[in-house]
Amino acid sequence: xxxxxxxxxxxxxxxxxxxxxxxxxxxxxxxxxxxxxxxxxxxxxxxxxxxxxxxxxxxxxxxxxxxxxxxxxxxxxxxxxxxxxxxxxxxxxxxxxxxxxxxxxxxxxxxxxxxxxxxxxxxxxxxxxxxxxxxxxxxxxxxxxxxxxxxxxxxxxxxxxxxxxxxxxxxxxxxxxxxxxxxxxxxxxxxxxxxxxxxxxxxxxxxxxxxxxxxxxxxxxxxxxxxxxxxxxxxxxxxxxxxxxxxxxxxxxxxxxxxxxxxxxxxxxxxxxxx
Length: 275
What we know:
Helix content is 15%, strand content 23%. It is of the alpha+beta class and 275 residues long. It has a single domain, classed as Extracellular Endonuclease, subunit A (Extracellular Endonuclease, Chain A), CATH 3.40.570. The strands form 4 sheets. An 8-stranded antiparallel beta sheet has the order 1-3-4-5-10-11-12-13, with helices on both faces. It is globular, with a radius of gyration of 18 Å. It starts with a helix and ends in a 19-residue tail after the last helix.
């Protein structure tokens, strides 16, 4: 029951006009998936943020893909995800809000038959994403112990993650995060694409994860061309580098003084000095 209480958050969908900012005269929205405050965009004045039981996501309107996903892993939210269905589904909070019209004549959505892995693809607003190169920014394994795991099949949680990255170092870091949550309790994660100049969000050159627990932080950047056996401990980055590349303020609480970092989580995530 503790896990159900921890994750029972009313669904919210709104056009955010710096709603997560702490600016004078504006409301401050506290979302349980974010550490004090959710990330703020440095370039976009208006955003679509969806809040589900297990994650919050900032959606890029043209593609319908997430610019960031924030989630909170608890020790008792973990579970065995191998048998959970993984059929993508339209986000019920976005189908009538985004510019993407899921029923429009110019949009084709094709849900593949997962019994046949050949030539599977998914189309969003005339953008094709190969089925082998898509994954969840908030992972199933972190929330298989909750009754809300189906949230993670929403398209707002989908990213075109290359297969070698998704099943390699990216997945191994997710396992390390789960192990950390089992030991210490709440672990906050922010994840998303890093889109370089000239790229589009459907084909980012890299992805990031920022992991925060007990005011300690570790940050990672994963190039899209990583091999499956590459180590996540070799992908350390800094919060400042990721924020600059993503045009995001990932932890606004640092600027307001509501958060002071007390070191890294490198050792706790399995990347000690001997690594």
